[in-house]
């Protein structure tokens, strides 16, 4: 029997063709945060720029010194913003210079999450008049993310099996491709603090659990 070369080529192509099931696997791990990051600082105003700067520097220095006394090390207090800009009033439809404003904002990392309220109160009681927010995180993020990634791979396999069983086709359980999908995977939990008031009692700040997520794309043959 005679077969043309073209027919043989099509036959070989069909033999090489794979049937693919492509799925997205998802995994997540719920953990309790163990560190807090607080964004706070001081704003000062004065008609004389040098005076506004000096007043601000005094407040920030005082805040840092008092935080050190309650166990916050120097390297856990980082400047993340320092800005100077003029302020204006409007009079008879015209801008009239009023003051210079200086803002110095710190990012404070609190290793003992139970001290979050104490840190905020200590800063406020010593001149901080900016509290922009608090986020909670875990010091072992990489460890928990790897767990979530493993669960995502398992989930991908379960999804592929479900599809294959529904189609009534034999699934090759070893995937031909697994790719990690990069995206926002959980991350720090934002906390919006209430107005800070100087008091003897520490401001109660309670964190909630955080979810660390991972996602993969996987392909299986059948």
Automatic annotation (TrEMBL):
Signal peptide per UniProt: none
InterPro entries named among the record's database cross-references: 26kDa_periplasmic_antigen, SIMPL/DUF541
Protein name per its UniProtKB record: SIMPL domain-containing protein
Originating organism: Lederbergia graminis
């Amino acid at each position: 029997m005679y077969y043309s070369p073209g027919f043989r080529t099509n036959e070989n192509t069909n033999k090489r063709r794979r049937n693919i099931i492509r799925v997205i696997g998802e995994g997540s791990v719920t953990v309790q945060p163990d560190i807090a990051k607080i964004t706070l600082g001081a704003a000062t105003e004065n008609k004389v720029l040098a005076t506004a700067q000096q007043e601000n520097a005094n407040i920030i220095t005082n805040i840092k010194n008092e935080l050190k006394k309650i166990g916050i090390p120097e390297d856990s207090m980082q400047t993340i913003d320092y800005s100077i800009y003029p302020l204006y009033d409007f009079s008879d439809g015209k801008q009239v210079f009023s003051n210079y404003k200086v803002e110095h904002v710190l990012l404070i990392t609190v290793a003992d999450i139970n001290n979050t309220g104490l840190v905020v109160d200590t800063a406020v009681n010593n001149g901080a008049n900016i509290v922009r927010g608090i986020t909670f995180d875990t010091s072992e993020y990489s460890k928990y993310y790897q767990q979530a990634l493993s669960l995502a791979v398992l989930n991908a396999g379960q999804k592929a099996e479900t599809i294959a069983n529904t189609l009534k086709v034999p699934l090759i359980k070893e995937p031909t491709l697994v790719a990690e999908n990069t995206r926002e995977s959980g991350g720090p939990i934002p906390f919006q603090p209430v107005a800070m008031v100087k008091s003897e009692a520490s401001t109660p700040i309670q964190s909630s659990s955080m979810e660390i997520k991972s996602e993969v794309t996987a392909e299986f043959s059948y």
